[in-house]
Structure formats: C-alpha cells, structure tokens
Amino acid sequence: MVAAAALTAPAVRRHWAPGVASATRAMSADAPCGDAAAWFGLSGDGAAPTQGLLAIVDGLGHGAEAACAAEAAVQALAAAPDADLPALMRRLDGALGSLRGAAVGLVRVQGCRLQQAGVGNTRCMRLRSGHMTRLPSQNGIVGGGLPTRISVSELDLAPGDWLLLFSDGLAESLQLPVLLPEWERDPGLLCEHLLQQAAPGRDDAGVLVMQMGGG
After folding, report:
1. Bigger pLDDT: 206 or 214?
2. Where in the numbering of this chain does the PPM-type phosphatase domain appear (predicted)?
3. Which positions ≥6 away from 107 have C-beta within 8 Å?
C-alpha cells in the first residue's frame, strides 16, 4: 500500500489573463513542484492578451532544488520579458549556472504570429481545428549546456487557436480530439484535464495554455 505522503500532489491552477491559464503538479505531495509556468503580458493593462511571453520551465529532477531552479528562471524572465528569445535563453543560462539547471520552452506571441524557442525536454504545440502542430526543442540544459546557437521557430496564429506548452511530466503523444466548451470559458479546466489524462505521475508536471481571442 502506498503511504499517503507519497501520493501525487493536487494540481495548482493559475489564471494569468483572459484565455491564459496554467497548472502544475508535484510528483509527491510532500515536496515542492520543480515545474513552473508563467505569462508576461505586454499588451497593456486591461488589454486582450495579444502580445506577451509564455514560458514553461522544468527544473532538472524534482524536489526543492528543482523548484529553486524553476523559480529563479521565472524571476529572470520577469526582469526582461520583452527581450528576444535567444537573449532570454542566455539570461536564463546565467541565472541558473550555480543551480541545478532546467529545460525551458518560450513562446513570444505577437498578434497573428508567434516565435518559439526551446532547450531541453519541453513541448510546444499549436492546436487549430483539431490539427496539432508541434514545434521543436533543442538538446541541451539551460544553466549547464546551452546550445551555442538558439534556434527560433515562427508560426502564424488565428482566432480560436490554442497554444499548449508543457513539461515532460506530460506524455509527448498528448492529443485533444475534442475541445469542450467549458475549456474556452475556463482554460484552467483544460490544464487540469491534461494533467489528469496525460501525466503519468512519475514526475513533476506543468502545463500552460493560451487561446487566441479567448476571453
């Protein structure tokens, strides 16, 4: 019988802006989550979230040291969220150099376009009309093996598109054949659904979603 302390922790949801939400879940109820998610809006106070930075961070391993690395990464991003993606990756590499390191996925939303960069085992997808487009992530560790050149991918965006960023606590084969209406009203429910359906529970897990034109 599994001891209660070893049970998976409940999900922690956060609503960042209209159409933007995240959920993280620690592998164990007695340890902090080493995954973090963040949205840095650049559209102005009260404006629809059409400009900004999405980030998913997976501190290496799990437990307190992983959580410390993930939090340090979020703080470093908060200091310069409008910097270009390669510059942000280099900033994170410096901030995590004395810590455990992390896998990081970043998406810059700019109206009807996105730019994306990923280092390590994070995932980024655009869901449009039932079709999933998966964006790449480079091999490496932010804070201990950053690639010399950070690759940046670009993709178009349209109203109704969903962006999904998640850590390797969720299965890479994740699919969403049906989108429920309540997820549009509360994207945090979609985050919880993904954790329940796709996360095997053997690692910390984090997911961040954004619906274009959501509100």
Report:
1. 206
2. 24-212
3. 53, 54, 55, 114, 115, 116, 124, 163, 165
Q: What is the pLDDT of residue 135?
A: 95
pLDDT tens for each residue of 46-82: 556 789 999 999 999 889 999 999 999 999 999 999 9
Gap between the Cα atoms of 135 and 164, Å rounded: 10
Q: What distance in Å separates the CA atoms of residue 134 and residue 60, rounded to the nearest whole number?
A: 23
- Record the tokens describing residue 171, joined without a space: 């299965």
Instruction: Please report the pLDDT score of residue 3 as a whole number.
Output: 43
Residue that the structure tokens 């390590």 belong to: 120
C-alpha dist (Å) from residue 82 to 58, 135, 144, 163: 21, 21, 24, 19
Question: Which regions of the chain does DSSP assign to beta strands (E)?
Answer: 12-17, 20-25, 35-41, 51-59, 102-110, 113-119, 122-128, 131-135, 153-156, 162-167, 205-211
Range of lowest pLDDT (7-11, 25-29, 69-73, 144-148): 7-11
- Other Cβ atoms closer than 10 A to 164: 24
Task: Compute the distance between CA of residue 22 and CA of residue 25 in angstroms, rounded to an integer.
Answer: 10
